[in-house]
Specification:
The complex is a heterodimer of chains A (580) and B (384). Chain A is of the alpha+beta class. In chain A, 41% of the residues lie in helices and 16% in strands. In chain A, helix 9 (296-302) crosses helix 10 (307-319). With 384 residues, chain B is α+β, with helices and mostly antiparallel strands. Chain B folds into four domains: 2-167, Beta-Lactamase (2-Layer Sandwich); 183-242; 252-332, no CATH class; 334-383, no CATH class. Chain B is built from 15 helices and 14 strands. Chain B has helices spanning 2-12, 43-49, 106-126, 134-151, 197-202, 212-219, 223-235, 259-262, 264-274, 284-292, 300-307, 316-326, 343-346, 355-362, 366-375, and strands at residues 18-25, 29-36, 64-67, 71-75, 78-81, 90-100, 154-159, 162-167, 183-186, 239-242, 250-253, 329-332, 334-338, 379-383. In chain B, a hairpin with a 3-residue loop joins strand 3 (64-67) and strand 4 (71-75). The two termini of chain B are 40 Å apart. The chains are: A alpha+beta (580), B alpha+beta (384). At the A-B interface, helix 1, strand 5, helix 12, strand 16 and strand 17 of A face helix 2, strand 3, helix 10, strand 13 and strand 14 of B. Chain A: Its main location: other. Chain A: Residues 503-564 form the GATOR1 complex protein NPRL3 C-terminal HTH domain. Chain A: As a component of the GATOR1 complex functions as an inhibitor of the amino acid-sensing branch of the TORC1 pathway.
Chain lengths: 580, 384
Amino acid sequence: MEVSPLSIILVKSDSKGDRLLFRYPFQTRCNDEPSSKGRKNPYTLPVVDDLLQSPKQSFSNINKENLTGLTDEVLSSLFAVKTELCNRKFELKVNDVRFVSHPTLLQLRNKQEKEDDSGMLVNIVFALQALASHSVVNWKILVKCYHDLSKRMGIVLKYEEKRCGYVSEQTQLMTTAHDDGYTNGSNSAFQIILEKCSLANNIKKMYDDLCTTGLVNLRINRWIPLTFCLPQKVHQWHIRGKIVEPEDIDRCLSALRPYHSLLLLHPLHQKNDFTSLDGSPGLDRMLNQYSPLKNLQTLAADSDLTLTHVFELTAHLVYWAKATVIFPICSTNKYVISPNAPIHLNSPLLEKFSDTFPGSNLIRTVGEFSLPSSLSQKCNPLCHPSQQSELVKTIIWLLQHHLLLQLHTYIQYMPTDNGPLYSKRGNNKSCLASPSSRSSAVVNSFQSISAERTESESGASTVSEVTEISVNKNIVLENVGFGTTEEDKQDYQEELLLDFPDEERSSIFKIPATNTPEDLKLFARLCRKGYFQGNHHVEEIMYLENLRRSQLMQLLDKFRDVLITYETEDPAIAMFSCSS
Amino acid sequence: MNLKSKCDNTRKEGPIRCIFFCEFHHTAGPMISCQVPENYISKELFDSISVYIITKAELQRSVITVTLHDYKILGFPVKIDDRDKYVRNAFHFNLCFVCDSNARTVQYETVVMKFSNYLIAREGECSFLSDGKVNEKLSPILTQVMDELNNKGECALIEGATTTHLKVCTIRLDPTPVMDHQVPIFIRELPEQQWDLTTQQVTPFIDGFNHVSKIAVLSDVENNLVKACVQNLVYYGVVALIPLFQYGNVYCTTPKLKMMMQDNDMQKKCLNYVAKNPRHLPVIRDVFRIYSAMTRGTTIRDLCIRFNPSNLRINERKLVQFGVLEGIIRRVQKYPVILSDNADLHKSLSGVSSLDELCCSIGVPSQQLEDQLERDNNVMLLWK
């Protein structure tokens, strides 16, 4: 696994010189491969290489996931950096190994060494594989993550040294072990250090945690907790084979909306595993109210937290691979099999599923979602309520394992053969500026999007003009609401769609529903707000405009000549189950 | 055009900001003896990192990259042993490239190595580096190398009768293995050059509709050779792989479909691409309607019956091709899984291989196989 460290190295440098105190792993693993020498065919001719060429240099310092070819002295001289490079990121690449660390200078507590107050340099270095040429990992971010861990470790050590001289004590222990064990070779010295020193033990645990789960949970000197999460690794357990970068998570979280919902990947009763004693009380409150059927807004209201706080907590849980974001489960949601679903006969999920739901078969259950199907389609009125709750549980399980993908309906406005005409469109979207929506955060984000678009599509119109027009329009709309007499009809129709280009207007007026003022008004409103450009799905429009599904569906049906609908996944929350 | 795109490419990878040559002076220690441009790396900075540049013996001939706050320095430390020639019995030097600290530098590693080897050779021939006048001699060479590598991505050092070529090779992702049932399609014109014989024989049959096995038969080339050749073309970004077109195929839309209405260039490209006749372009409304109607459960045959694309001046095969290439639609594959305990079929019908793969490997028309599997109650067809 290329995101796991090859080795963790601890180097110190002080007035007595530099020394590699500890590295883990120090014993070379896996020697079970048959050596090529034993199998050598005695009849082969010795291959004489071109004698004129210098012997081929091997450009690799990695052998079977072990760091090789660099002695402890070399490593120590490399990482005992000059003071100019201290307390900042250190990154060095030697052949195919990349070393990352945060060299930390600390002031020793020991009073005896008062004569030289230069302090001591402690450097915890992570050796990583640097196969950047054909890797899917963004190594810059990976380096950043490891640097962060090294930096945090440095801060902890600095503090502990100040508090109780922990670092001087541990380095003393390690140096003695090295001096004593010098005759027996360095590996035995490392073994002794590992038995005696708690810092070495911490480093070992850190290495093991990083290699297995990606979640580091340490208590340095049995006092300071150090927790760290390597996102590239930690998401492996629920999405195997896909590397989730921190920026993917950021993208998902920036698309978070109040109507989304949280889905925990662990059963709720395990929540104590990931809420520490001194954790946020808000998190605890939120988890007590948690249900995958609630959206974030309801969750915030029920747990008496602000929406932004709930967003932050959600972000936290998603980053630490404890939860994922879905659209709340309801009877109208349409699900299909996710394109990357690892369903085959040898999949361990099969057994896991039949353990959770005795008597059912994962493949048969998933197979029912080959065609888009919703909960309401699966439950007929004769269904027993318990069956329905069982079905909901099944869907939650499938969503937790990223086997299902939800389809949403998107709408594209297509008034003419050549699509919408963009002559006056700039002012359409500006209506958003009117404070109509509930969640200001959402509106703000939409506003910024629409502002960008206004600039890009109609370069001529300035923002000030735009708001002016929109204000006028609001007045017009209000007037329209009162006009009901028959002869006014044509007029208000015209007025309603005043900002639409003539061609678009004529094709819209061919639709019989335009004779109903309510329908036309709603259509004009939604169209102006830019909901029909494939950026908003039906559920989002319902949420933002406070509409019922039936209202919107009827409208889409009545105006189907100019509105084209299609079904696809919500790109923001589908990132965990789609490759793109 | 080609040159320009290559140039852009190297620029994206991060240009070389500076090249310097440093040596271990027998009295002064590590020092920079030649630098282009002058004083890009200050003496203080150099002193703080000299341990990574003039290194211990064990790190000789390793590619070492140091990332600092502002710079990234890429070097290849070299030591030449000669008891008679040098005061300290050996000559240490390192030729380093300096880039921005956030730039990618892997592609320069081989260049630095080759350049250093070139200098070693010249030092061996005529004490080029150690006679004390290295600054005057080297600085025009370094200037030339830096300019040409940054602008053209390649450089030739001519010395008498020998020429040393330096070239920056873009390092790309390894291409995935090519399967029998996949269809190669050109996404770029095949560059004019002396291709190998296999490629010359194979490329005429790459038309975006023939799958790999069929190309092998048509071109009379062994199947694995065709795969290797296609993989090579994929690596260079000349060819893309798409699923086989059949009227029974099912496609679904992706979130990228909205781009079609938001991106005018893409729209134009699409209309030209899918047109049956380039003089009578179809209209975007029809094209968009057909794409929108692609859902799980709707085959291309159904769509053809519903919309009659040729009446709308649309070539449905091209329509699907464009959609797949641009990623606005995606093929929905069928994966048969057997549920009974039939050990013979467990391997092939395990859910790992799609119907296309199976058809291609056993040579049965997909319709026939699908009908047969659908009649079997023990087989589940998963669409994903």
